[in-house]
Specification:
Blueprint (H helix, E strand, L loop, with lengths): L1 H8 L3 H32 L6 H50 L2 H6 L2 H43 L1 H8 L1 H39 L1 H6 L8 H19 L2 H28 L4 H42 L17 E8 L8 E8 L4 E5 L6 H8 L7 E6 L2 E2 L5 H7 E5 L9 H6 L7 H10 L3 H4 L19 H15 L3 E5 L7 H14 L4 E5 L11 E6 L2 E6 L1 H7 L2 H12 L2 E4 L2 E4 L4
Parallel strand pairs: 3-8, 3-9, 6-7, 7-8
Antiparallel strand pairs: 1-2, 1-4, 4-5, 9-10, 11-12
């Protein structure tokens, strides 16, 4: 935990130092009146009390109260400034770090879990620094100061009181272990519930259509029940040990009282000393009771902090030698790749795409077409071989440099909950309004945007839910046009569109790919007949390579796929079955 805190402190050292100093001073000021209270008690029982001294001590106590109130305000302000400065910078660091991670990290982790780290776990971090640490710091200083005063008064009774600390600590350590175990289970259940609820909301259309709402959606129902059980366990199991620790403190105070009365009757303790212990001795345990609760909270919150730090320490993609290519041809040299499991998705793939030419990737589903585009964009790094742009291995470039070279138009388009204009501007944030509008016009976005009340400044909704698939696709192409990168990756942008939209999208794509090096994943083979070259993949291997005419002449897999699509074009619905036109 200490290592995690030190790592976090480095994010905003000045704010942390100021807050810690103020917390220490505040803790000291809370404990200082105890010493003057002791002096007042001694003065009253001295047999010759001097009123001037009593008034002086009272005046000092009043002054300390005023200073304490002023310092409390400053401490709270400094603590909040530190907390939210740290959490803001931590979220920014976390966001920047996530951007530099390989896509393999996102493939292996649940998106709901990542969202939980960035939102809920960082929120728990705020609670640690905003309240818990300050309370513990003040409690520790108050306990130390009061202990010193009590030892000066009578070391025997002080030892009886402080004997409660190791006994209480034993109870705290037991609860600590339970919190660590149950807390991890609770956070895992919480994250799973969040992920299942997100799944429920995103799939609500299908859930309703199959009558799986409410308890009938078993995965969410199970997740909620597991969260309920984990929450009860997390609260219930450590509770008895915390209560036992508090009871130990009370018992040691009663033991001190019994011992003090015994010493008083034996004449080895003064009445003033016993009254001092009755007042200050009980107060000694007040900050400790706070610590008992806050420490348990701190241990639970530390699980969240560990999750944040673990994610922050996840290795990022190597920046390489920061080389920049001077041309934009693409070369695969004996590339083999797998997504972290035994089966290889690509096996010994080699090809070359000259600058400003188009290569089409075709093949059965799962043959590795999309994986090739992902390797070019350096979403993943190859395990064997090399991927080069302009003769430079993409691993020798910074990931950001690779992204600057590439524009992507995929079948699934994600739009931010913003305006159409701003969603296009994502392609190049420093673009002028004229450039954005020009890209929108070339991508035929203005044709439909002007039908909305606010035109191009109309909001798209979350994920673009206010727009049709074809409209979202045109915005995606407008982004790519605005970016104007030399390499374009197309993952069958027209596969799921209706014929009318497909015509518009094809026109926009023609604008996009002018004078670019293009890699296109094709499902509709008719759309890539004029590609400079076609690479046919089958089960991760190169099956054939050449032009449409050459591949058709080979009578191989490409010819077979072509014939299937031509045949499928003749299907129609007749009564309750699908039959071929030429078989009717």
């Amino acid at each position: 935990m200490i290592r995690n805190l030190i790592y976090t402190f480095k994010i905003a050292p000045a704010a942390v130092r100021k807050s810690i100093v103020l917390d220490l001073l505040h803790g000291l000021l809370i404990a200082m009146p105890t010493g003057f209270l002791l002096l007042i008690i001694q003065e009253l029982f001295s047999g010759k009390a001097v009123p001037e001294r009593l008034w002086t001590y009272t005046g000092i106590l009043l002054a300390l109260l005023v200073v304490q109130l002023w310092l409390s305000v400053r401490t709270i302000i400094a603590s909040n400034v530190m907390t939210y400065t740290l959490s803001t910078r931590l979220r920014i660091h976390l966001g920047n770090h996530l951007q530099r991670l390989s896509m393999g990290v996102y493939k292996q982790r649940d998106p709901g879990d990542l969202a939980s780290v960035a939102l809920q776990d960082v929120a728990n971090f705020e609670l640690i620094f905003g309240h818990t640490i300050g309370n513990i710091t003040a409690a520790v200083f108050a306990t130390l100061t009061i202990s010193v005063f009590l030892f000066i008064t009578d070391w025997r009774l002080a030892l009886v009181l402080l004997a409660a600390l190791p006994l209480s600590w034993l109870m705290v350590k037991i609860s600590d272990m339970l919190i660590f175990r149950e807390g991890k289970r609770h956070i895992a259940a919480r994250n799973n519930t969040g992920a299942r609820f997100l799944e429920y909301v995103q799939g609500i259309r299908h859930i309703k259509s199959f009558g799986m709402t409410g308890k009938r959606f078993a995965t969410l129902d199970k997740a909620l029940n597991e969260l309920r059980a984990a929450s009860i366990q997390t609260e219930m199991l450590p509770g008895p040990f915390v209560l036992t620790a508090a009871l130990v403190l009370e018992c040691c105070f009663l033991l001190m009282l019994y011992t003090g009365v015994t010493f008083l009757t034996q004449g080895t303790l003064t009445t003033a000393a016993l009254i001092t212990f009755l007042i200050l001795g009980y107060r000694l345990f007040e900050p400790l009771r706070i610590v008992l609760v806050d420490y348990i909270i701190l241990r639970y919150m530390n699980i969240s902090l560990e999750r944040v730090m673990t994610l922050m320490k996840t290795p990022v993609q190597d920046a390489g030698r920061r080389l920049v290519p001077q041309r934009h041809d693409i070369t695969f040299s004996q590339v083999s790749f797998s997504y972290g499991h035994d089966k290889q998705v690509l096996r010994d793939i080699s090809f070359h795409v000259p600058e400003r030419q188009m290569l089409a990737l075709v093949g059965p589903s799962g043959s590795g077409k999309t994986t090739i585009t992902s390797l070019i964009a350096r979403f993943w790094d190859v395990q064997q071989g090399s991927v080069q742009i302009g003769g430079v291995d993409v691993r020798d470039m910074e990931p950001q440099q690779v992204y600057r070279l590439i524009s992507e138009v995929f079948q699934d388009v994600y739009l931010f909950d913003d305006t159409i204009y701003n969603n296009i501007r994502v392609g190049r944030m420093d673009a002028t309004e004229e450039e954005v509008l020009a890209a929108a016009e070339k991508a035929l976005v203005l044709d439909f945007a002007m039908e909305f009340p606010d035109g191009i400044h109309s909001r798209t909704g979350e994920g673009g839910n206010r727009l049709s698939g074809g409209q979202k696709q045109r915005i995606s192409i407008a982004r790519a046009l605005l970016k104007n990168a030399p390499v374009v990756l197309l993952d069958e942008a027209t596969a799921s569109l209706d014929p009318e939209n497909e015509v518009f999208i094809q026109q926009a794509i023609q604008e996009l790919v002018k004078d670019k090096t293009v890699i296109v994943v094709a499902h509709k083979l008719a759309t890539i007949r004029n590609a400079n070259a076609i690479l046919v993949l089958n089960d991760g291997r190169m099956d054939a390579y050449g032009t449409h005419e050459a591949l058709m002449a080979e009578q191989g897999l490409y010819h077979h796929l072509w014939q299937l699509q031509q045949t499928a074009g003749g299907w129609k619905v007749s009564n309750e079955t699908f039959i071929l036109n030429d078989q009717i």
